[in-house]
Amino acid sequence: xxxxxxxxxxxxxxxxxxxxxxxxxxxxxxxxxxxxxxxxxxxxxxxxxxxxxxxxxxxxxxxxxxxxxxxxxxxxxxxxxxxxxxxxxxxxxxxxxxxxxxxxxxxxxxxxxxxxxxxxxxxxxxxxxxxxxxxxxxxxxxxxxxxxxxxxxxxxxxxxxxxxxxxxxxxxxxxxxxxxxxxxxxxxxxxxxxxxxxxxxxxxxxxxxxxxxxxxxxxxxxxxxxxxxxxxxxxxxxxxxxxx
Length: 244
Hints:
Number of domains: 1
Strand order of the largest sheet: 4-7-10-13-15
Order of helices and strands: EEEHEEEEEEEEEEEHEE
Number of strands: 16
Helix content: under 10%
Shape: globular
Largest sheet: 5 strands, parallel
Low-confidence stretches: 1-12, 52-58
């Protein structure tokens, strides 16, 4: 079976991923690849083990979570997007993904891009999709089964040129607004040390951002955001990867 899913994200110091319905922890500083990854105290050091788990010949790709990540100008050579998905139409189709509270900033094309296939119960919500180059759509590709809800969309290039914002498909309750993120200038992300990646000052909403407290309350929210800030289970969260 040929199944490929690429999430092109910066990796923070400590976070968790859900793989095949099981929670695994990654700690880029204190983790070890020899650990079992099942608790913060026995975290893996990188996503390599999780990626290996995905591609080890599993019969299905099911029940995964992607949350509180940042993608910055990823996909220049492949996919032209922050999140790129491909599933062989002849294979067992991928299903049940919850992608929420991620921040995607991309200069090459789309926030999310799919190659043809059915993506049953793929839910994207509370994400920021900020495109800085011109594009026809925020979401690329041909697909069915994916749902988008309460995501924030903005295209800098279109706004600066007075062009209508790109087309939007398959979205319920979108927010069209500049998220007022602090973005890095050219060269400021060069030579960034992995151990410092969750201390970066960028990609946070500025005062007055429409992303602040505009998120949908989720049934099972994450405990911490990208920077390690605690997330309230009772208050409306921000849209995007910054919960504070």
